[in-house]
What we know:
By secondary structure, the protein is α/β, with parallel strands linked by helices. It has helices at 18-32, 47-52, 73-82, 93-104, 142-151, 180-189, 211-223, 241-253, 269-274, 291-298, 309-318, 329-341, 355-370; strands spanning 6-10, 36-41, 56-59, 87-90, 113-118, 136-139, 160-162, 197-202, 228-233, 260-262, 278-281, 303-306, 323-324. It folds into 2 domains: 6-166 and 355-370, 3-Layer(aba) Sandwich (Rossmann fold), CATH 3.40.50; 180-353, 3-Layer(aba) Sandwich (Rossmann fold). It is built from 13 helices and 13 strands.
Amino acid sequence: MVRRLTVLQMLPELNGGGVERGTLEVAAALVQAGHRSLVMSAGGRMVESLVAQGSEHVAWPVQRKSLWTLRLVRPLRRFLREQQVDVVHARSRVPAWVAWLAWRGMPPGRRPRFVTTVHGLYSVNAYSRIMTRGERVIAVSQTACDYIRDNYPDVESGSVQVIPRGIDAEAFPPGYQPSASWLDAWSGEYPQLRGCRVLTLPGRITRLKGHHDFIELVGRLREHGQAVHGLVVGGEDARRRAYAEELYREVEQRGLEDSLTFTGQRQDMREIYAVSDIVYSLSTKPESFGRTVLEALSLGRPVIGYDHGGVGEILAQCYPNGRVPMRGADELVARTLAMLQRPETVPDCASRFALQSMLDDTLALYAALAEGEQ
Length: 374
């Protein structure tokens, strides 16, 4: 029987995003398995959900990319000792540096085990190298594993374990239909969608998410006489306000104000996927994974995405017809037109990326390390 563990996950903030959702999922699994779950971050809107699930939140300013943050090393070392932490799991670079420096300064026989997760394809430098210093390094996809191997060849292959991020098929069941009340509210909020085929680009408003490509796509489809409406579903980062304004100006300059809507951050992504005719993933920089791609495919909605990184990896396994070359504007338009004219059945793929598999593998890794596995 596995003894009760105290596991500390560290990340910058809890304001939404794939890393944050994965943290809450693992935290909930730890609590359900009878372990003590601690999460350290600067806080955010997801803290309430975390605590409601039975975890403890430790509010520390581990989000600051500043030498000042290194002042937390000694207090963290004391915290790890006092709380008798068995495993510390760093999920981002600044928290990883603080955790590693604190961990390294503890006696080897009395310190917790140290785990990192490579969630992204970070810039290759000494700063990013910290994400490969875990005693165990979790790669969230084969793409992330290849990134480690190609850019940090000195990392022992035995320390890297691929644990694909997963989704809950019960939360995103094939053929899901929103409730009548949700549909009424949605229609009232966005009457401009009536009579249109809905194309959705989910994701935060950041420069690498392919918003310009999406705007161009909607414009070209309208030129082809297609009754489509584009939805950009994602929050606007206050630090990237200039980029958001740039997008709004482009929409206006192209005369697409009636054909493209920015919804802002939404909590009902399942329902939005379900009423979308096609969902897109157009990041111009390869991503380590593609959670929105999996969520939409699990519901049975077709996805078109650039064929690189984790998105290309998922589409290759689950929905090959959704792959288009990066920045292939003509093919993006042609593939969209083909899918609109001849809707396709999306095969079941959720079982290949099951949330429970990810949780089981992660908790098994914690347990093996805590029991002394090298």
